[in-house]
User: Fold these one by one.
Assistant:
Number 1:
Amino acid sequence: MTSAQTRGRLTLVAIALLFALPIAVAMYFYFADNGWRPGDNTQHGDLITPPVSLPDVALTSGESAARLREVWTLIVPVGSDCDATCTDALDKARQVRRWLGPKIHRLQTIALPATQNALASTLLQEHPQLIVAEPQLSADIRTAIGSYNNGQIFLVDPFGNMMMSYRPGTDMGDIRKDLGHLLRISTIG
């Protein structure tokens, strides 16, 4: 075999490797379970499937009564008393809303207390933007939500569908990431 033939064969092998090597590497990363593949889901909260449609009722009395329509909503159900877990959930909801900056008008936070005196006045002063639903007006929504853990946060879309829940103690950054993704791809609310 001459040196020209050897050089030609080596060039052919190099060209074949140039095209085959990226395919082999891609197949390795696709089929090997080495932590490079993304997880099955990207949301941090628990997806509610099918979404629970909440009734369109006024949550407060007055001229501009709050409703669960037209904007995204974070709901924090409150039992007969707002303990440390409940207070933490309200703080996280407030931080998420503040994080939105100029898009703050796209999100409202609503507390659903079981009784009129469930939220202390000092807590209400700390959360001036919090909408506190009147217990008698929000009874249908509390029924639709069903059972919940103290400090749980629910995400409701602008059509009134409860679509995601966050367990007590969920990191505020996780809620923020989910909501940021939804607001970025959503043209509603």
Number 2:
Amino acid sequence: MQTFRDIAPYVALASAALTLALFVLVIVLWRSVRRVRRAQLVVMGHHEQRDIVAHVGSLDSQVRNLREAVELLTDELDEQKRHLDRALTNRAIVRYDAFRDAGGEQSASFALLDNHRSGVVFSAIAARDFARIYVKHLRDGVADRDLSPEEQRAVAAAVPRPLAPGDDGPRAARAPRLADEPRPPAGGPPPDDDERRAFDALAELGDPPPEPAPDAEPFTWDAGGDRPAGPEPSSGA
């Protein structure tokens, strides 16, 4: 009994020290939990309590849906570009004097072509006592009738750099691929700033950044449409 009374103060002191240590530990853990909650608030925003894993899964699903929508819009944009390549949106007018006795550049050649140099060329030849109109059809730079020098100038001014037959204009840039999608072969061009920012965002989520998607394949211009079938007198005859 005497022994218990001798060690009682030491037991009480140890209990007090343990209680103080536990209290400090509780404070430290409480502050850590507060920091974690503030970090979650920055990521998740002000809404109901949710599991962070479920929230990340929801964000991943939304990103995938957004990428699918972007791919659909990109395909639609490429299709519209192909239609525009065949639309008669390029035009040019060349005025001249077809005859020496008719001044004022009353004669003119008008070219209305698409990006492949397909379309029509109109020529209005004006003289003192008559006026004539000539219409010629072009397909991929080749006319159904010989073009006059003025008509050749109008065609070259309307479409300086025509597309080759069967080629399309530059395609729209594709969105960067996700980590679990098939990756393109190495050796492509370096990623641009938008792709690099997308890769950094994926790296912050813990996913390894994928390799950059290749840009649109390069295309070449074909100057075959610049070869006229032969000159024609200025009168258009």
Number 3:
Amino acid sequence: MKRFKFILTFLLSVTMLTSCNNEETRTYSISQNVHYDFTEMDNFFKKYVTEGKVNYSKVKEDNALDKIVIDLKDFEPYAIDDNWERLAFWINVYNIYTIKLVTDYYPIGSILEIEGISGMNPFEINFIEMKAGRKFSLDEIEKKIIIPKYNEPRIHYALVCAAESCPVIIPEAYTMEKLNEQLDRQAGIFINDKEKNFLYKMEDEVFLSMIYKWYRKDFVKKILPL
């Protein structure tokens, strides 16, 4: 129990994002200090997300993601100079495209059903288009960009995988100005969700979400050597 309390204390008090200086090597020049306007994303989340759930049928009916997708195809994420802003960008992109993927195959009950329909792991499909024709998968954004390049375990409370076991999605875009507070809030909501984490007092046992097993190194590396 002491170790569990210590880990939870860490999760809620994790330090500010550290610098990320090792972006992948690029052979083309990029104008720095560009800002992405999150207004369209923010309006989308506010309109189509209610109580942590996405109204997929309405998103599909309205073609609500078309403008956002078009804008992202012509945007260079590495032109964003601020690490917080770039992290907010990647979180929003991950969530937007998770919703898009589910919407494309809707009606389905979970993103995991897509593999049975398409024959492809939904998290490995290269369908996220950025400037210069580059394409990313959800796994690439999470495991090759966000996790290794940003020292921030709270992102696991923000990235939404469109399944019941995932963190709830918030009805707003993540932004540089509010990111620290938003991640703290998401951490608190997830940790205190008794359907995902709870104490079984009769046996003095703690049951935790599988997130803490899948991403154990991200959560404990700062306080417990592996």
